[in-house]
C-alpha cells in the first residue's frame, strides 16, 4: 500500500509579477503593491435608516469602506444604495467602485455649453472638479441652525463640486452661495456652500481630514513629490 502523496500549497505572493508599464494614475508607486488609507464610515442618519427600512433593508456600515490609494485613486464600497433591497432577509450586496483622479469625475473635462451660450462664442467650457464640504445648516436671523440634531438630517458632508464658476452663459456667477442667496444671513443656506455638486458616497466620519488626505494624493506628482495644495474654507 503506497502512502498518499502530500500536497504543499504555496500562499500567494505579497507582490504581483506585472512588469508592463501602466499609464496615468493606474501606475503604482511601488511595483506590485498599492498602499491605502482606510477611513471610518459616518454613522447613518435617521433619514437613511428610515429609507433602508422602507426597502426591507438594513443600513450596513460593516461592509462599507473608503480607501484613499497611493496611485491617485479612491476605492469605495457602498452597499447601502438603491439596489440594497430585502437585505433584512438576504445578504447585503457589495457595490465596489474605483475612481482615478486623472479621469472623471475628478479630472478637468471639456463640456458642451447650452445653445444660448453659443451666441456669445462660448461653445464649450472646462470643469475643474474637487472635493468640498457641504454644510447642511441653515441661517435664520443671523444665527446658524444645525440640522444635524433634527432627526440626523443635516451635518457636514463631502461633495464633488464640478466648478468654481458657473458654466456659460452664467460664467460670471460663483458656484457658491453668497449673501444674496440667504438674504444677508437672514434666511437660507450658509455662505460658501456649493450650489451645484454631486454627493460623495459613502460618507466619511471626518470630512475635513478625508478631503485633506484625498486632495494630497490627487495633487501628488507622478514622481511622488506633492504639489502646493491650497485648501479653501
Q: Got a strand count?
A: 12
Helical residue percent? Answer: under 10%
Instruction: Please state roughly what percent of the residues sit in beta strands, choosing from under 5%, 5-15%, 15-25%, 25-35%, 35-45% or over 45%.
Output: 15-25%
Q: Work out the helix count.
A: 2
- What's the alpha carbon Rg, rounded to whole Å? 23 Å
Tell me the distance between the termini.
79 Å
Query: Widest sheet: strand order?
Result: 1-2-3-4
Shape: globular
Encode the helix/strand succession as letters: EHEEEEEEEEEEEH
* Main beta-sheet strand count, sense and barrel state: 4 strands, antiparallel
The overall pLDDT, averaged over residues, is: 80
**How many structurally independent domains?**
1
Weakly predicted, low-confidence segments:
1-5, 225-233
Describe the fold and architecture:
The protein has one domain. The chain is built from two helices and twelve strands, in the order βαβββββββββββα. It has helices at residues 46-54, 207-218, and strands at 36-39, 65-69, 73-77, 96-100, 109-112, 124-127, 130-135, 138-140, 143-145, 156-161, 187-188, 198-199. The relative contact order is 0.14.
Amino acid at each position: 500500500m503506497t502512502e498518499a502523496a502530500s500536497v504543499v500549497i504555496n500562499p500567494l505572493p505579497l507582490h504581483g509579477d506585472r512588469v508592463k508599464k501602466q499609464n496615468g494614475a493606474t501606475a503604482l508607486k511601488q511595483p506590485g503593491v498599492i498602499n491605502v488609507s482606510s477611513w471610518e464610515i459616518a454613522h447613518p442618519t435617521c433619514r437613511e435608516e428610515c429609507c433602508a427600512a422602507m426597502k426591507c433593508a438594513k443600513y450596513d456600515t460593516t461592509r462599507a469602506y473608503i480607501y484613499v490609494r497611493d496611485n491617485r485613486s479612491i476605492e469605495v464600497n457602498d452597499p447601502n444604495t438603491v439596489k440594497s433591497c430585502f437585505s433584512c432577509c438576504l445578504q447585503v450586496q457589495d457595490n465596489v467602485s474605483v475612481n482615478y483622479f486623472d479621469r472623471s469625475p475628478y479630472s478637468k473635462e471639456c463640456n458642451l455649453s447650452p445653445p444660448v451660450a453659443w451666441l456669445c462664442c462660448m461653445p464649450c467650457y472646462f470643469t475643474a472638479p474637487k472635493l468640498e464640504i457641504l454644510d447642511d445648516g441653515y441661517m435664520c436671523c443671523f444665527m446658524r441652525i444645525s440640522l444635524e440634531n433634527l432627526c440626523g438630517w443635516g451635518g457636514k458632508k463631502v461633495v464633488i463640486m464640478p466648478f468654481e464658476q458657473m458654466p456659460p452663459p452664467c460664467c460670471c456667477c460663483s458656484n457658491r452661495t453668497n449673501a444674496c442667496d440667504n438674504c444677508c444671513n437672514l434666511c437660507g443656506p450658509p455662505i460658501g456652500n456649493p450650489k451645484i455638486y454631486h454627493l460623495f458616497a459613502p460618507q466619511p466620519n471626518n470630512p475635513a481630514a478625508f478631503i485633506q488626505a484625498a486632495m494630497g494624493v490627487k495633487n501628488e506628482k507622478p514622481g511622488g513629490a506633492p504639489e502646493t495644495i491650497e485648501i479653501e474654507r
